[in-house]
Design brief:
This protein is an alpha+beta fold. 57% of the residues lie in helices and 12% in strands. The chain contains 20 helices and 13 strands. It is extended.
Length: 622
């Protein structure tokens, strides 16, 4: 007589359903409140507004309820809890030995537990789908097909989440370690990418905001689904809402196929799992070195970056910053390595010869990685595209400049090379400002760099300095007008402008300019800006005595302002001490005098402009 081999055990299935009923009951409540109840209230809300068509009401109500009921974070969280429940016996030596002494093999146990966990989540989804259909009928909603789409998408996501959970569950013998591992696996790729990017930004000059892993983030399921799975309304060419789109639904198909692979791998691991590993942090011997190195590398890079950003930033030298980063990385890496070993062995005595040797190898690897970054062996800091590869380059110091011509692009490339050659000077300068360069390549990719460059009077006066060259580019009248009024400023028509005056009593008065007045003011303003830039680039003709070593500023006052102004120059006083500043010359004076002088000139300019606009018939108190 042939014996039958079963892959499913009804007794264990019933035990799971009755023993863990609060879990699937809680999940059922979440789905019912989110979808059918949420849909009912959404529909009532949109019915109160007559501006919506019946189709729009249905689309907005259904899409809002489905977004609440299809949250990847919540789905994966419930899946983790279900897997913890059905495989909870693996994390206790007593329960493990008892369950595996029953007349059931491991295949039967595995299949029954997976089906149980799947039933915990899919049965509530089916129940929610049925209830939602009746709600749609009661609310006169005809687009029920979208509810079916939701059920298919949620079931596929649930299958993958459970399969991944079963795979992760086989690597540990501690119940509380499983949720930690599950979260780590779901965010491992983006976490490592982000951590390495932090180190690169800390070591490589100019590299910042370089976080863009792209589609490879599919290796971090929760992160990728949260950012790429969307339920949104669809509009036609006349911007009228006509339906609902599941954006990124194909991802669920990819993850479902991956779920089959994880499920098969989990079954194989379950067959190989040793019962005596119950209670161990790591149940698979081959994973222990991976765990040690993973914890050590993450602890080292994270700790080193934190120390460098807190302590290292107080030093202007890039070399000091790097050595602080390297020391922090190696120290925290060692701490992470031996703490991980203590957790694995459940013992503080882990400093034996074999582990110390392994730690030494780890230290060499970390040091080599940091050294390679510092020497730019990966060509990250010094990466500069060829002119033929660039479609558009933008430069931003005070405002954004864009260039498309090869000659102009080459100028920006040469400027970047000059900045890299002056790295230490840029980092150690007392006065710094951020300069960003963004290359848009012909293949659609972008290369961004952000540098700190020296600024101040000395840098501006040096025509060969980076800031002077960028200022020269920014002083192009055409670029300035584009920045203020757009690329089509030459064909724009300016119809209005206004200025507000405040008297000594706090009363305000507004004056609106005509188009002719506005054009004249804009032209005068641009002329004065150009004069200021030219003044900063010229050598001072008049220098105030400064034995105290106070901060100085270069200024050039206009030749003539109004009928009552002295054509020879201006007297300016600070704390009762006056000095004479000649007109039409580039003057280098103390900053406190320059600030007082500019304030006085600006006030008189406003006064004269207002009086001229009103033909001298009004007075204004400033």
């Amino acid at each position: 007589m042939k014996s039958k081999t079963s892959c499913f055990n009804k007794t264990i299935f019933k035990k799971n359903m009755t023993h863990f009923w609060p879990l699937w009951a809680l999940y059922s409540c979440y789905l019912i409140v989110s979808l059918p109840v949420g849909l009912w209230f959404n529909m009532r809300y949109y019915l109160q507004d007559d501006s919506y068509s019946q189709l729009q009401r249905q689309v907005y109500a259904i899409s809002g309820a489905m977004r609440a009921a299809m949250n990847p974070v919540i789905t994966f969280a419930f899946a983790a809890v279900m897997i913890m429940a059905v495989f909870s016996y693996l994390y206790s030596a007593k329960n493990t030995n008892m369950i595996h002494s029953l007349p059931v093999d491991r295949r039967e146990l595995f299949v029954t537990n997976i089906i149980s966990a799947f039933a915990f989540m899919v049965v509530p989804q089916i129940l929610t789908f049925i209830i939602t259909v009746f709600v749609c009928i009661g609310a006169h909603i005809t687009n029920i097909q979208y509810i079916l789409y939701w059920f298919g998408a949620e079931a596929a996501m649930t299958f993958f989440a459970l399969a991944l959970g079963a795979f992760v569950a086989m690597f540990t013998g501690q119940l509380m370690a499983f949720p930690v591992y599950y979260v780590v696996v779901n965010y491992l790729y983006v976490g490592c990418w982000y951590l390495i990017n932090m180190v690169i930004e800390s070591v490589c000059f100019g590299v910042s905001n370089n976080w863009n892993p792209g589609k490879s983030c599919i290796l971090s399921p929760i992160y990728y689904l949260t950012n790429n799975l969307r339920i949104q309304s669809v509009e036609n060419s006349e911007y009228v809402t006509v339906g609902i789109e599941f954006k990124g639904a194909y991802l669920l198909g990819i993850y479902a196929v991956a779920g089959v692979v994880f499920l098969i791998a989990a079954y194989q691991l379950y067959k190989w799992r040793k019962l005596e590993t119950a209670g161990d942090l790591i149940s698979m011997r081959g994973i222990k070195p991976v765990f040690r190195w993973g914890v050590a590398v993450c602890a080292g890079l994270l700790g080193g970056t934190a120390v460098a950003d807190t302590i290292g930033n107080s030093f202007s030298s890039a070399k000091v910053h790097f050595w602080i980063l390297a020391a922090g990385t190696l120290i925290f890496g060692a701490i992470g390595f031996f703490v991980a070993e203590m957790l694995i062995e459940k013992n503080f005595r882990v400093f034996h010869k074999k582990r110390v040797g392994e730690w030494a190898v780890l230290t060499v690897v970390l040091a080599a990685f940091l050294g390679a970054l510092k020497l730019d062996l990966f060509r990250i800091e010094g990466k500069i595209p060829d002119v033929s590869e660039v479609k558009v380059v933008s430069l931003n110091l005070d405002y954004k400049l864009c260039y498309t011509e090869p000659d102009d692009i080459q100028k920006i490339i040469d400027l970047q090379k000059e900045i890299l050659a002056q790295k230490e000077e840029c980092l150690s300068a007392e006065n710094q400002y951020y300069l960003s360069i963004t290359y848009t390549l012909k293949d659609g990719k972008k290369l961004r760099r952000s540098y700190t460059v020296p600024v101040g009077q000395a840098a501006a006066a040096d025509k060969d300095s980076v800031v002077a060259k960028v200022t020269a580019l920014e002083s192009d009248p055409d670029k300035m007008m584009q920045n203020m009024f757009g690329n089509y400023y030459k064909t724009n028509e300016y119809y209005a402008g206004s200025i507000s005056f405040v008297d000594e009593n706090g009363r305000t008065e507004d004056y609106r300019f005509t188009q002719e007045e506005l054009d004249a003011i804009l032209a005068e303003k641009l002329k004065k800006q150009n004069e200021t830039i030219e003044a900063l680039q010229e050598k001072p003709e008049f220098i105030q005595d400064n034995p105290e070593g106070e901060e100085m500023e270069i200024i050039k006052i206009p030749m003539y302002l109004g009928p009552n102004d002295d054509p020879r120059g201006e007297y300016v006083a600070v704390n009762g001490v006056a000095m004479f500043v000649p007109r039409g010359k580039v003057c280098k004076i103390k900053k406190k005098y320059a600030d007082r002088l500019k304030m006085s000139l600006n006030l008189r300019e406003v006064e004269h402009s207002y009086i001229r606009a009103n033909e001298g018939t009004k007075e204004v108190t400033l």
